[in-house]
Amino acid sequence: MFVLQNEGKLFAADYPKAMHDILGECSLLSATGDFHRKLKNVIISFINLTKSKPEFLHCAENISISMIGSWKSRGVVEFHKEVKMFTISVMVNQLLSIRPDDPARLYVLQDFLSYMKGFISLPIPLPGTAYTNAIKARKRLSARVMRMIKEREREEEEEMKKGIREEDFLDVIISNEDINYDEKVGIVLDILLGGFETSATLLSLVVYFLAKSPSLLHQLKEEHEAIRAKKGDGELLNLEDYQKMEFTQCVILEALRCGNIVKMLHRKATHSIKFKEYVIPKGWKVFPILTAVHLDPSLHENPFEFNPMRWTDKAKTNKKTMAFGGGVRACPGGELGKLQVILFLHHLVLSYRWKIKSDEMPIAHPYVEFKRGMLLEIEPTTS
């Protein structure tokens, strides 16, 4: 926590060359100081706008219902792959007004997968390398977003007057005169990346841990059945329903602690620092290992046990975890990601029973992946 709490004072973000080259200068991850604050404020405006709009809830829930309904004739689903499509569909709809049936979402997903592989590659600028493919994917994504911004600027006034569509985040970002085109593109790509990959991985982890814990799955299902019993036939969820899902929230927080989606951060000492009995010279790299905190037996009783009940005192347990980072660089979209996960989970637990392969497990590669891609054997709960 010492490192994260002193971000901008004693430490600065310092990611590897490959990641920096791919993200570019206008990414929240690589930005520092006042520029970082400016970009983060724009992203927070998106988060606040989205959370307050029932359209986001309805979009995420309708896509959940559609995807889960499409599995009825299938006995096995490659869950991790499916939920990546779910989260990218929600994000491109909310950010760019791309409909779930638009083929463009597939191209965006493919480019993001290439984009991410390059983050952990050697920066070798040769054809066919992960680094080169990621640079090309980033350029395609940037060009797509830039083209949409320019087209939206030309069409915006007439469309809004005619009521052809409702305002989305792209309209908000276009109207912001304090940021240039490159910054606008960088912000859109940052939100897409965070909202798509992290949420999909969290959802897969929740389903994995619940498959290993039948009693917890039963308890979670009871909570969702109680909420559904008070809703009309086909009635969608709202924020009040979300806030009532207290046990589900505990399950998600415990999955974040045990799953460790982000395992470490990259920082550099901007001054010579004395911390306890250690001296960190100026310019040295520092790697806060979040996994070490989340699995520390001095902080968490039986740390390797998946136990959502440890979150009944959220304020106390929150002080011992850093699932969304901390300090000025804490992830601003954590609550939005949890919201997507809960909406999908609600319909999943009410629609199916599931089992995973006996040797299935999450692995660090270094992103969280699954040995068998999270193959679920599913069975409808009703005929």
UniProtKB/TrEMBL annotation:
Heme binds at residue 331. It comes from the Eukaryota. It is a single-pass membrane protein. It is found in: Membrane. It catalyses: campesterol + reduced [NADPH--hemoprotein reductase] + O2 = (22S)-22-hydroxycampesterol + oxidized [NADPH--hemoprotein reductase] + H2O + H(+). GO terms for cellular component: membrane. Gene3D superfamilies: Cytochrome P450. Residues 138-167 form a coiled coil. InterPro entries: Cyt_P450, Cyt_P450_CS, Cyt_P450_E_grp-I, Cyt_P450_sf. Its cofactor is heme. SUPFAM superfamilies: Cytochrome P450. Keywords: Coiled coil, Heme, Iron, Membrane, Metal-binding, Monooxygenase, Oxidoreductase, Transmembrane, Transmembrane helix. Its main location: membrane. The keyword Metal-binding applies. GO terms for molecular function: heme binding; iron ion binding; monooxygenase activity; oxidoreductase activity, acting on paired donors, with incorporation or reduction of molecular oxygen. Pathway: Steroid biosynthesis; Plant hormone biosynthesis; brassinosteroid biosynthesis; Hormone biosynthesis. Pfam families: p450. GO terms for biological process: brassinosteroid biosynthetic process; brassinosteroid homeostasis; sterol metabolic process. Belongs to the cytochrome P450 family. This is Cytochrome P450 724B1.
